[in-house]
Design brief:
alpha+beta, 3-stranded antiparallel sheet, 1 helix, 16% helix, elongated
């Protein structure tokens, strides 16, 4: 039997996707302020100097680091989930 979900149980969460050169899947980063992280990574991509970026996150990935000149693209993703 299909389980029905009340619309009140549907929540949204926002993640930042980081596409690295040579990687087939993006890093999916859950942080408290995704718009700020997106803006920070966008500035890192614009910079000509390579820098190590290290972040602690709230999702399955707890800590990550990568070099800024390896970022191919950055995106913000909104997803719905039942909670």
């Amino acid at each position: 039997m299909a389980q029905q979900f009340n619309a009140q149980n549907i929540k949204k969460r926002v993640s930042v996707l980081v596409f690295l050169k040579g990687s087939t899947a993006p890093l999916v980063l859950y942080v408290e302020k995704p718009e700020e992280l997106y803006a920070e990574l966008q500035q890192a991509v614009k910079s000509s100097a390579a820098a190590l970026i290290e972040k602690e996150t709230l999702g399955p990935i707890k800590k990550v680091c990568f070099i800024s000149n390896q970022i191919a693209a950055v995106a913000i993703q909104e997803e719905q989930y039942v909670g």
